[in-house]
Automatic annotation (TrEMBL):
UniProt GO MF annotations: acyltransferase activity, transferring groups other than amino-acyl groups
Source species, domain of life: Eukaryota
This protein's name: Spermidine hydroxycinnamoyl transferase
Membership in a protein family: Belongs to the plant acyltransferase family.
Organism, scientific name: Aquilegia coerulea (Rocky mountain columbine)
InterPro entries attached to this UniProt entry: CAT-like_dom_sf (IPR023213), Plant_Fungal_Acyltransferase (IPR050317)
Classification via Pfam families: Transferase (PF02458)
């Protein structure tokens, strides 16, 4: 369905620093794989530009890479399963592709194998020093619409940084040559490096093996067939969930009411636990991503360019999760809130000390962008979840001159339990993309909508 026409290498259009960037421990534990995302655009109307969409993307990308020059570099192993970033200007890979499909053939854009074909593949059989850190695939559809698939190295930058780069790139494509959304700050030595001789002061469950299913092994669960779905919530349904989460709380508690994300994440956790028919004594983890930019002292520079996301693990017994109230939503939200609040300056430093003391980081990386991956000590499948929120991220800012995307979302969900909470474009709605075992999905969808 998708044919590759040509592959280009795009480099910064000016000379950029040829330096090596040291990567702190918080950059060392994400997976070495690339995070794949997809943008869809309606058929392009003639706007007077003499450049084709491909030419626009390539020329503006070469300008954007002057500011974001590390993305044109390559990673190198330095021992102990750790990496260093070499800013060598080798460039970004841009792929030109065509499809006989129309945009409407992709339905609700759930991240199936067909959607995955619209995002770049990385040849992981090569040495890591040959992997581009960013790959872009422009696919033209039969209807005249296009998609832009992105694959960005998770070792080099987190979602907030990747989207800042894409927003700047889009600004340049629209003719705003000097408009950098946030000037990137590339010195990562401002992030605490970790002391390998210091004893961690907390029990870092986020770096330990997740609970396994009673009566089953992790390997058995990894091998079960899974499927993906997209569940939409209207603004009213989001508000209803948030109201349910805050029912019965005291006026003092309501001063810090549970957020949309906490309400939705808690609801997903409860529905998944019910759909999986977990035993009351079963332990379950909900792994959540916490932005640490303003949790360190002093706060990181506004444009700090690297990973600043710490994974927190909310843990509960299923019986407690489901019995506190008809849905247990207040309890689930409380567990998620507590896990987020644990990520303080002291906790983060302790976590970095823990990682710095590890002789080899390899086992901490989960290949969660790869379907059926069996790597890593951290298993987020049944009975566990990984809940990533894109609330507050500029996911619809990618206007390269032919309008905002009609959809932006993940191009792959690699493992059972992985989910994204995607905000609507300013209308208060949300979409949940989630992968679960086939035997659990129908029940999950039914439970998800019953309460709202």
């Amino acid at each position: 369905m998708v044919s590759i026409k040509c592959i280009y290498t795009v480099k910064p259009n000016q000379q950029t620093p040829a330096i090596k960037i040291w990567l702190p421990e918080i950059d060392q534990y994400p997976p070495t794989t690339h995070a794949p995302t997809i943008y869809f655009y309606r058929p392009i109307v003639e706007n007077g530009s003499h450049l084709t969409p491909l030419e626009t993307l390539k020329s503006s990308l070469s300008c954007a890479l002057v500011h974001y020059f590390p993305l044109a570099g390559r990673l190198q192993w330095i021992g102990g399963g750790r990496l260093e970033l070499h800013c060598n200007g080798m460039g970004v890979e841009v792929i030109e592709a065509e499809s006989e499909n129309k945009i409407e053939d992709y339905g609700d854009f759930r991240p199936t194998t067909e959607i995955r074909k619209l995002a770049p593949y990385v040849d992981y059989s090569k040495d890591i020093s040959e992997w581009p850190l960013v790959l872009v695939q422009l696919t033209k559809f039969k209807c005249g619409g296009i998609s832009i698939g992105m694959a960005v190295s998770h070792i080099v930058v987190d979602g907030k940084g990747a989207l800042a780069f894409i927003s700047t790139w889009a600004n340049i494509a629209r003719g705003h040559q000097g408009k950098v959304v946030i000037q990137p700050f590339h010195d990562r030595t401002v992030f605490y490096k970790g002391d390998p001789t210091a004893k961690p002061r907390f029990d870092h469950v986020e770096f330990k093996a997740s609970p396994t299913l009673i009566g089953s092994s992790e390997m058995e669960e990894r091998q079960k067939e899974t499927t993906v779905t997209m569940l939409k919530l209207t603004k009213a349904q989001v508000a209803k969930l948030q109201q349910k989460a805050n029912e019965g709380r005291t006026p003092e508690d309501l001063r810090r009411a549970y957020t949309r994300y906490e309400a939705i994440a808690g609801h997903i956790w409860i529905c998944a636990s019910r759909a999986r028919r977990l035993q009351a004594e079963q332990l379950t983890n909900a792994r959540i991503a916490v932005d640490c930019r303003n949790r360190v002292q002093p706060s990181l520079p506004a444009g700090y360019y690297g990973n600043a996301i710490m994974v927190a693990a909310a843990t509960a017994k299923v019986g407690e999760l489901l019995m506190v109230s008809p849905l247990g939503l207040d309890y689930a939200c409380g567990k998620i809130r507590h896990a987020q609040e644990m990520i303080s300056q002291d906790y983060l430093k302790s976590a970095m000390d823990f990682l710095a003391s590890e002789p080899d980081m390899t086992s901490f990386r989960t290949g969660y962008h790869t379907l059926g991956c069996t790597q890593g000590i951290i298993f987020q499948g049944c009975p566990n979840l990984a809940l990533t929120s894109w609330f507050g991220l500029p996911i619809y800012d990618a206007d390269f001159g032919w309008g905002k995307p009609i959809y932006m979302g993940p191009a792959a969900l690699g493992t059972d339990g992985k989910s994204f909470i995607i905000p609507g474009d300013g209308d208060g709605s949300a979409t949940i993309a989630i992968r679960l075992q086939v035997t659990h999905m129908d029940n999950f969808e039914k439970l998800f909508y019953e309460a709202i």
